[in-house]
Design a protein that fits this description.
about 170 residues; alpha+beta; 6-stranded antiparallel β-sheet; about 15% helix; about 30% strand; globular
Length: about 170
């Protein structure tokens, strides 16, 4: 019981202090499955937040709230074996981030050490906005994204997306 209370207290502290002045406005949705209102959940200047690279995010502790910057290089569903690095994208439940965009002229399959899967199933508005199946123009776009570091698809990844912003 004491360990559970300590864990909950640590998670609350991480949410309050994890990525500077994070302010989240809950949506009035009745299904409880939307993160917040609006397509881009944050509007603050991303330069004010100390974002981790994909390589740095992989080394973060599981359960920690982290802010990651990377490029959306693939879509995925169920496992990394199903990752699509080029159109047509088939799978709307996850996106894969990397520190560099994919270059089709010199395409080399990424190894798992360079990839960071992001679960899109926790909030339907995030899934609708970020999946490559419905939004192929997001491929190779830089994104700034905050969520809970988790083990996902047998790799270090991100779940429970709290906020995101696409680079201009």
């Amino acid at each position: 019981m004491g360990k559970t209370i300590t864990t909950i207290a640590a998670l609350c502290l991480a949410l309050l202090c994890g990525c500077e002045k994070a302010v989240f406005e809950e949506s009035a949705a009745t299904d409880g499955k939307t993160a917040t209102e609006g397509k881009n959940i944050i509007n603050e200047d991303t330069a004010q937040i100390d974002y981790l690279t994909v390589a740095e995010a992989q080394a973060a502790n599981i359960g920690e709230v982290i802010c990651v910057k990377g490029y959306i290089v693939a879509s995925c569903t169920r496992s990394m074996a199903n990752a699509d690095f080029m159109e047509p994208f088939d799978g709307s439940t996850a996106i894969i981030l990397a520190d560099t965009p994919v270059d089709l002229d010199d395409f080399i399959f990424f190894n798992d050490d360079l990839l960071f899967p992001v679960c899109l199933t926790d909030y339907k508005d995030v899934r609708a906005a970020l999946n490559l199946t419905d939004n192929p123009s997001l491929w190779n776009r830089q994104i700034f994204i905050t969520g809970v570091k988790s083990s996902y698809m047998r790799l270090p990844g991100l779940k429970k997306i709290l906020r995101y912003q696409l680079a201009d």
